[in-house]
Amino acid sequence: MKILHTSDWHLGHRLYDRDRTDEHRAALAWLLDMIETEKVAVLIVAGDVFDTMNPSNTARNLYYNFLGELQRTSCQAAIIVGGNHDSPSLLDAPAELLSHLNLHVIGGTKNNLADQVIELNINQGAAAGAVKVDLLVAAVPYLREKDLKYSIAGESPEGRKQRLRTAILQHYQDIAAAVAEKRKDPQTPVVATGHLFAAGSVDASDKQTHIYLADKNNIEAGQFPDIFDYVALGHIHQAQRVGGHEHVRYSGSLVPLTFGEARQPQSVYVFDLSAAGEPVTVKRLTVPRFRDLLSVRGTAEEVFAELEAFHLKDRTTREEGTLAPWLEVRVETPHPLPLLREELTAILEKKNPALAKDGSSFAAQEAAILRTSLIRPEGAENDQATLTSQSLSELDPEEVFHRLCHGTATGERQDYSDLLASFRELRTWMEEETTEA
């Protein structure tokens, strides 16, 4: 029985206010092709279907169209769990209807953990006798603080971290017990899902996505109960196995969400399951890059020269059907460069008559610079003026928070990880309140 593990679609994501719909549509079409090519029987989506808790109608259409097209493939069932970016109520709303199509959605935790244990009967090889192979899935979504009930008034930050780790581990032990109670045949394989930051995993340097106060030490790969034959994780956008365990893996995001993530290929995993306890064979499928996200860094002279060379080869090297590349430019200089954006635009304008009139970007079929920033060389004097070259649309909320916490300091304050965790909790609470309203 072949199972495909994917996660972190982030439908509706915008990169510095740029729409990603075309990339996501192409990636989902490729995913449907791979499901058919690989003869996948079960699809698992390990959280963050959407980028926000109140996704646009366009993002929702991408999701539901994909589920509709999935019915025309070899896939006989799908398990979809919510991530920290998803609204549990939004995902769960059509869950009962979708279950009749063998599409099982768990947007948030259930009061009865047995409701998170999905029993599947997969019809394998009808021509060979229609042998049915059972599969149990412990569908664990992103565990929100209110689900874990870990906070105690007056508790120290370290005490809260330890209590949270204990609560996460306990949740997996409890659902493993629920699986054992439902499993009638000890040979029935079991898959578990999760959306968290497991100890030992690595994320892109510009996307440190810790979602719990416990930071990177939520749970270790070896702490997942032995009853799980494969643990399909989401949240980390870089594909990897965790802690040296072949059966505990992050599939990574479907498209790169930052320029840093674009330095690594995106992928999904296809793995075979036959009977419980047997080794799992895992194959990694690399997702094509439908739009390149390129970083250009160096002195002003080096950046200008690289842009000249880049644009000369852009049209001739781009594969048919791919979207025009987007660039971020980082210039190393000890001094402010107030006309940097205009100079960079002028270089591309010489080669391209399709430049937009406002000088900010190119038409959809042409390359565009999404972000410019200045970097102080090592040893240069600290000059706050070098931070003024970015527009508001180029800033990420966490970047702004970092600057407010540190000002012009060169080092990182010792309590910053706790401050950032609190900031993220507040942002999540605000999004949840906005969605419910």
Q: What features would you describe in this structure?
A:
α1 (21-37) runs parallel beside α2 and α7 runs parallel beside α8 (340-351). The chain has a six-stranded mixed beta sheet. It is of the alpha/beta class. α8 (340-351) links the parallel β16 (323-332) and β17 (368-375). It has helices spanning 21-37, 57-70, 88-92, 95-99, 145-148, 157-182, 300-317, 340-351, 397-406, 416-436; strands at residues 2-6, 14-15, 18-19, 42-46, 77-81, 103-106, 117-124, 131-138, 190-195, 230-234, 240-242, 245-250, 267-272, 281-286, 291-298, 323-332, 368-375. Residues 126-131, 353-364 and 383-388 have low confidence and may be disordered. It contains ten helices and 17 strands. The longest helix is centred in the middle third of the chain and has 26 residues, at 157-182. 30% of the residues lie in helices and 22% in strands. 35% of the residues are buried.
Measured on Cα atoms, how large is the radius of gyration? 23 Å
Query: Which class best fits the helix and strand makeup?
Result: alpha/beta
Number of strands: 17
Indicate the mean pLDDT: 82
Largest sheet: 6 strands, mixed
H/E series, N to C? EEEHEHEHHEEEHHEEEEEEEHEHEHH
Apparent shape: globular
Estimated helix fraction = 25-40%
Portion of residues in beta strands equals 15-25%
Low-confidence stretches: 126-131, 353-364, 383-388
Gap between N and C termini: 43 Å
Alpha plus pi helix count: 10
The main sheet orders its strands as 6-5-4-1-13-14
